[in-house]
Amino acid sequence: MPRIVRAAAIQMSPVLGDDGLGTARKVCQAIRDAAEKGVALAVFPETVVPYYPYFSFIQPAFRFGGEHLELYERAPVIPGPVTDMVAEAAREAGMVVVLGVNERDFGTLYNTQIIFDATGEILLKRRKITPTYHERMVWGQGDGAGLKVVDSAAGRIGALACWEHYNPLARYALMTQHEEIHCAQFPGSLVGQIFSDQMEVTIRHHALESGCFVVNATGWLTEEQIKEIAGDPTLEGPLRGGCFTAIVSPEGKLLGTPLTEGEGMVIADLDFALITKRKRMMDSVGHYARPELLSLLHDRRPARPVQYVGENTPSFKSPDEVTP
């Protein structure tokens, strides 16, 4: 039987300076708006809740302590009020939702991707394995436990954030699990046009190599937000451009017109017959692979600060083990 899933890549700006719930409320409204358009899968930008730490890109670390502490105060815990709110919206809409958040786990923040099923259940909570450049002063590192593809109401879904797509082994780890839809997230409003150009190449290449659909969402800053974050006209330039919200077919074709500025949605119907059409010719983890020559070792054990041994010692469950 034909299998078609309507997907939306959602480009949006965060809510700055509130209690930390404003962006989550905006996400829930976008879910409701997408549901009215028949969307079954919605992907939101990287750490859009409560907002991406743009301040860390334009300021030296010794100056952004105040902004970093504010992000701690607004960052959600998982599970918590933010995930409950989004889970309810996903459940009411019958929609699979992929959301990027700044996750607070006691004294550390993480760049975390959450996949909610159409029932509202959290199928996956994964942390970016290596924060990029300036991000290393903001977030901790994830582990191999999060490099996982999950079965959802929309299909088999994998996810990576931003420059994780430049780690070919991380991408291959998901490819070996036969992802049908790859959900990519980038911050947007960063670096300039070259970031958009690189992003397009990256997501189109992954679609071709993996033989899957790619739904990519980037954030967006308004001019007022740029001025607020920069605080200095000479620092505003690096916070413009760098948006490329788009959907790509397994043949590397752009479905619909990408969004490079402003808020909005790119919506496309994903025809899963195209996956087989692509993989019939080139299945990089099947008939086109040579595992006797080249293979990947993937350590899926959660990273833990302590291991308990013995019958009478307390049990410990890593936050990365939210789901099987």
CATH superfamily: Carbon-nitrogen hydrolase
Along the chain, the helix and strand elements come as EHEHHHEEEEEHEHEHEEH
Assign the CATH architecture: 4-Layer Sandwich
DSSP helical segment count: 8
**DSSP strand tally:** 11
CATH class: Alpha Beta
Derived structural class: alpha/beta
pLDDT < 50 runs, ≥5 residues: none
Shape: globular
Radius of gyration from the alpha-carbon trace, in angstroms: 19 Å
Strand content: 15-25%
Integer count of domains: 1
For the record, give the distance between the C-alpha atoms at the N and C termini, rounded to a whole number. 30 Å
CATH topology: Nitrilase/N-carbamoyl-D-aminoacid amidohydrolase
- Main sheet specs: 6 strands, mixed
Binned, the helix content reads 25-40%
Mean pLDDT: 95
Strand order in the largest sheet: 5-4-3-2-1-11
Map the helices and strands.
Blueprint: E1 4-11, H1 22-35, E2 41-43, H2 55-58, H3 65-74, H4 81-93, E3 96-105, E4 108-116, E5 122-127, E6 150-152, E7 155-161, H5 168-175, E8 181-186, H6 193-210, E9 213-218, H7 223-230, E10 246-248, E11 264-271, H8 273-281
Parallel strand pairs: 1-2, 2-3, 7-8, 8-9
Antiparallel strand pairs: 1-11, 3-4, 4-5, 6-7, 9-10
Helix pairs in contact: 1-4
Protein name: Nit6803 family nitriliase
Family: Belongs to the carbon-nitrogen hydrolase superfamily. Nitrilase family.
InterPro entries: C-N_Hydrolase, C-N_Hydrolase_sf, Nitrilase, Nitrilase/CN_hydratase_CS, Nitrilases_CHs
